[in-house]
Amino acid sequence: MRERPSVSALAAGVRAGDRSALGRAITLLESRLGADQARARELLERLLPHTGAALRVGVTGVPGVGKSTFIETLGRQLTGAGTKVAVLAVDPSSTISGGSILGDKTRMQELARDPLAFVRPSPSRGSLGGVARRTREVILLCEAAGYEVVLVETVGVGQSETMVAGMVDFFLVLMLAGAGDELQGIKRGILELADLVAINKADGDNLEQARRARVEYARALHLMPRKSEHWTVPVVTCSGLSGAGVAELWAQVERYREVSTEAGEWEAKRAQQRVEAMWRAIEWGIMSVFRDDARVQGRVRELELAVREGRVAPDHAAVELLSVFRGP
């Protein structure tokens, strides 16, 4: 059995940009074992002074919008210019088996082989919003390893967009032309988070339709409250397949960083995100302690059965379990 590296050796490997060391560090961070969690905290403490320099970008979109193809094209353009890029693709875990597909390295084959890129699929394991619990900390590890851009791809379900938007600097929303009125509800929710909207697959016979959709989305955004008085959300067209418009899109991301920094909003946003991350960690920690409590475990199966059979209201069962947890 191979001996595990010390925390100091792992930290040194991450700082040296060793992708293997970074992978092992992320695995340690995602472990649920108590001993591993203690080592992960020590690792983060060592690396924290070397974080914060990367541009963190969330990428989301409706199903079938072509997120992975777009991210690979964008990533290849950035690495082609000498920029180190990390891609964190949160992979949906099965609510039945707990397993996940972890197929993003397959979908981003060229980028995964690029020496300036690091592609890491992470299972959500049922975390709130489908976002891996440790995604924010994984971003920090990638920054410590010298990656200048960190792209976080959401699974595009439930609260994942809100969760990812709360841990990145810039939130990019990919849309399709003619996706149908049935998506209007989710579109509005996503658009409220957007720093830029891009109509993807603007190529071939779909080009003119994409241009019309750009105008429609620009009008819709004009009617919505602005996230910042210093930034008007652009709507652009692009093609992840051909690469058309992707460089221009990235120029808008860079412009956002300049405008936001000059307005004093960049660091203020990050500071608020750090505080929110603390409270999320507290919520997760309390829930873990609650579930592992022997008194709760002694009553939970009985109450779950009673709730399942309709003999006890869910709220009443929750109150009883909380009372058991608090004790006399």
TrEMBL record:
A single cellular component GO annotation: cytoplasm
E.C. code: 3.6.-.-
UniProt-recorded Gene Ontology molecular function terms: GTP binding; GTPase activity
Keyword annotations of the record: Hydrolase
InterPro entries, per database record: GTPase_ArgK, P-loop_NTPase
Any Pfam family hit: MeaB
Family classification: Belongs to the SIMIBI class G3E GTPase family. ArgK/MeaB subfamily.
Protein name (Swiss-Prot/TrEMBL): Putative GTPase
Lineage: Bacteria, Pseudomonadati, Myxococcota, Polyangia, Nannocystales
